[in-house]
Amino acid sequence: MMVMAATGANIPSDSTGDGVGPPEPPQEPGRAPEPEWITIDELAARSGVPTRTIRFYQSKGTLPAPERRGRVAYYGPDHLRRLELIAELQDRGLRLDAIRDALSRIEAGDDSLGEWLGMGDQLQAPWSDDRPAVFTEQELLDKLDHPRPGTLAELERIGFIKREKHSRPAAYLVPSPGLLEIGLALIRAGIDPVTVAEAEELIRQRIRRLAEELVEFFSDRASTGFGARGAPDEIVRAYEALRPQGLRAVQLIFAQEMERALREFVERGGAMPPPAAARKRKGDGGSRGLRTERLVGSPHRKPTTRHGHR
């Protein structure tokens, strides 16, 4: 795709109020017609990009400066094509600084950029088939299997479900049906919903950091230990192998570490009855046996939403 090299960092005024016409270089016999020059308002209308955004792109070096005559700025076909290309790269999920770097590579004649952009598309492929879904209230109640009153409200409060506004009959958006199934299984096993939500957020925080560190780890080793020679198709092949094996590794390592942590918990006396003084409570409430609060946290902790906001 043809793009125009940047013509400088200074952005001239794009005022259209002085009546000065666009640049008109002298025509030579047999020469192709000069490109059409338009104002920023006309460029915005043709491209669908607001004038404020066009100026912002210029200030960041993503869009070349316009031609000027007097106090008026004019834009040509290459500016329009550049805006189209920026929009295409944004649709691929690139941020503005990455787009600027990609455009610089195009201008330098790098014909491999398409392969790298294709790799980016493939790297964003899903790692699971768990997607948001909408359930009727009755479908959720059936999943809960005769829940106590207020359970749906509690699940909504901790972020596992979200009621759809103005829906008749009542319907709920479930951001992650898979996690809801896990949560319901734990609730049926006697773990309260708030504790389930807090445990899920604790896992997510650790896994989020691990995922970010692993992406950086593999990126730093592309062509020197990851992705063979570092070609786009080789990096994609490495990640395709990592997807199933990485998920398996997380499951195995989690199991191993839970075994270790629980063994150490028992060894230091965590599974023994608490001291008599700690068991003294009103009525029979102090005869609970195991130190459950050590495992699941204090019942007085504030509830946590699914994304860490209290």
Estimated structural class: mainly alpha
- Low-pLDDT stretches: 1-13, 15-19, 282-310
Number of helices: 12
State the share of residues found in helices, binned by percent: 40-55%
Question: Which characteristics define this entry?
Answer:
single chain, Multidrug-efflux Transporter Regulator, Chain: A, Domain 2, 12 helices, 310 residues, mainly alpha, 2 domains, disordered C terminus, two-stranded antiparallel sheet
Short account of what is shown:
This protein is mostly helical and 310 residues long. Helix content is 50%, strand content 5%. It has helices spanning 40-47, 51-59, 77-91, 96-107, 113-123, 137-144, 151-157, 177-188, 193-220, 232-267, 276-279, 292-296, and strands at 67-69, 72-74, 133-136, 162-163, 171-174.
